Amino acid sequence: YKKDLGVHTEMLTSKMVDLVNLGVINGRKKTLHKGKLVCAFALGNKALYDFIDNNPSVIMMAGKYVNDPYVIGQEDNMVSINTTIEVDLAGQCASESIGHVQFSGAGGQADTAIGAQNSKNGRSIIALYSTAFVKNPQTGEKEEISKIVPTLKPGAIVSLSRMDVDYVVTEYGIASLRGTNMKERTKRLINIAHPKFREEITRQAHELMFI
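Predicted structure:
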């Protein structure tokens, strides 16, 4: 494991505590609140709650402070890692809805992504599986679809703008988007889509004149 990681997060989780116990997370190199795990709330198993109980190394503060992009940006080398429901070839992320249907909330996704971009050597990452299984409304059967799409579904909420995504990561690789034009973004995102969908996404991208 790479050591000397720090935590400044909206939600503290059980796996983060596991990394603390392994010595991976210690906060020694943090710029802000050195040596402390900073969060707005915690959610996990009993070991997590036992860990934070009367623990001076954990600072739980109001979300308006923890999620403030200006505050996050004061932490050098900040890495924001979020996921999304689908991402289009421009890099726009729909993380709250499936088309016009509300699915989740935005949470601190935009806050942490923008904060990380304000950070010295910071970066914003979207990590997702390349596909999902969804029920076909006509047949009732589950079908595999690509989560990297030419355009977002009609009515989809854009939770994270394309300018706030530095990297998109799937099980097929990493697409570095910062500073790229539409043509380059399209090619890089197609390269990390599931191989079975790449030909069709490429065909649609040509029709839309993205490439």
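Summary: The two ends are 40 Å apart (CA to CA).
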